[in-house]
Amino acid sequence: MRLADKYWTAIVDNDATYDDLFFYGVKTTGIFCKPSCKSKVPNKENIHIFKNAYQAQTANFRPCKRCKPDGLRLPDEEWVTQIMEWIDAHYQEPLSLAILAKATHGSPYHLQRTFKRVAGITPNEYIQRTRLERAGDYLRHTDMSIRDIGSAVGLPNSSYFITMFKARMKQTPENFREEKRGEAHEASHLLDDR
């Protein structure tokens, strides 16, 4: 068995006997772990092996919140920033606290509590805010239907999307689109009149 195969087997089996021999980084998350980490097994092609935590950090990988490789802890503020960045990149997908916790190597309870304390809002509130801000961009800059915009931002149920949008923006998506386009039209006329 080649060394790389041994590493992979140790990761898949969460083998703690390898914890002092190497760490593995996951390219898609930017996080590094001990082989014994109980987080979801990543795709083999996304793994990068490191001899020590210093190497992993030098390569811009952050320590896992779950397994705390080499005794390191990611500061809560940095972890919440990482979670926000992950949401910003995946807002159009189905998201839940459990999915966020798996993606960012934490427990759902700890993630919820830490996110709320640091950001002042819950992860779900941040997800909805992000989705509705993106929807506003689509409404301003495209001719996509309301249904297609809802789907594009991860809210495929049109009536739910419209209700959420109206609750946050105080108007329907269609009224928002008309208002923003009217403002853009007025602004372009003002520029033409100069």
UniProtKB/TrEMBL annotation:
Domain HTH araC/xylS-type: 81-179
Annotated stretches, region: Disordered: 172-194
InterPro entries with a match to the protein in the record: Ada-like_dom_sf, Ada_DNA_repair_Zn-bd, Homeodomain-like_sf, HTH_AraC, Me-P-triester_DNA_alkyl-Trfase
Gene3D superfamilies assigned to the protein according to its UniProt record, in alphabetical order: DNA Methylphosphotriester Repair Domain (3.40.10.10), Homeodomain-like (1.10.10.60)
One Gene Ontology term of the molecular function aspect: DNA-binding transcription factor activity
One GO term (biological process): methylation
Known cofactor(s): Zn(2+)
SUPFAM superfamilies recorded: Ada DNA repair protein, N-terminal domain (N-Ada 10), Homeodomain-like
Biased composition (Basic and acidic residues): 175-194
Keyword vocabulary terms for this entry: Activator, DNA-binding, Methyltransferase, Transcription, Transcription regulation, Transferase
Superkingdom classification of source: Bacteria
Pfam family, one: HTH_18
Protein name: AraC family transcriptional regulator, regulatory protein of adaptative response / methylphosphotriester-DNA alkyltransferase methyltransferase
Species assigned in the record: Natribacillus halophilus
